[in-house]
């Protein structure tokens, strides 16, 4: 599971970079912050302390994989719809919060 979690992490990290590139193409001066903010939200929803993924439990890593897939889908959908980058970030944030509420 740990190997799969890290594999997914690196795949999703590349996906999160899509939002950064998209925001930069729309003129964002602070686009790199979106990557950090999304990662922080994902960690929080998975109940992983920032910077502590190496010590996460199997349950936390499983939640993280699900959350990051939700985020990736949200980013790709927003880019396909040509939404403003701020709108994409907001939608992703809302979905993460909904996931956290549903997963308890």
Description:
This protein is mainly alpha-helical. Helices cover 77% and strands 0% of the residues. It has helices at residues 2-25, 32-45, 58-80, 85-103. Helix 1 runs antiparallel to helix 2, helix 1 packs parallel to helix 3 and helix 3 (58-80) packs antiparallel against helix 4. It is globular, with a radius of gyration of 13 Å. The two termini are 22 Å apart.
Question: Which SSEs are present, and which pair or pack?
Answer:
Blueprint: H1 2-25, H2 32-45, H3 58-80, H4 85-103
Helix pairs in contact: 1-2, 1-3, 2-3, 2-4, 3-4
Estimate percent helicity.
over 70%
- Poorly predicted tracts of residues: none
Listing every helix as H and every strand as E from the N terminus to the C terminus, the arrangement reads HHHH
Q: What's the count of strands?
A: 0
Shape: globular
Q: Which radius of gyration do the C-alpha atoms yield?
A: 13 Å
Portion in beta strands: under 5%
- CA-to-CA gap between the ends? 22 Å
Q: What structural category characterises the helix and strand content?
A: mainly alpha
Please work out how many helical segments DSSP would assign. 4
Mean pLDDT: 84
Q: Largest sheet, described in full? A: none
């Amino acid at each position: 599971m740990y190997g799969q979690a890290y594999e997914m992490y690196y795949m999703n990290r590349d996906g999160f970079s899509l939002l950064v590139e998209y925001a930069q193409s729309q003129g964002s001066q602070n686009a790199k912050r979106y990557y950090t903010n999304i990662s922080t939200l994902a960690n929080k929803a998975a109940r992983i302390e920032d910077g502590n993924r190496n010590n996460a439990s199997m349950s936390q890593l499983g939640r993280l994989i699900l959350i990051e897939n939700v985020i990736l889908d949200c980013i790709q959908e927003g880019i396909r719809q040509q939404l403003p980058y701020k709108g994409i970030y907001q939608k992703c944030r809302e979905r993460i919060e909904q996931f956290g509420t549903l997963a308890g």
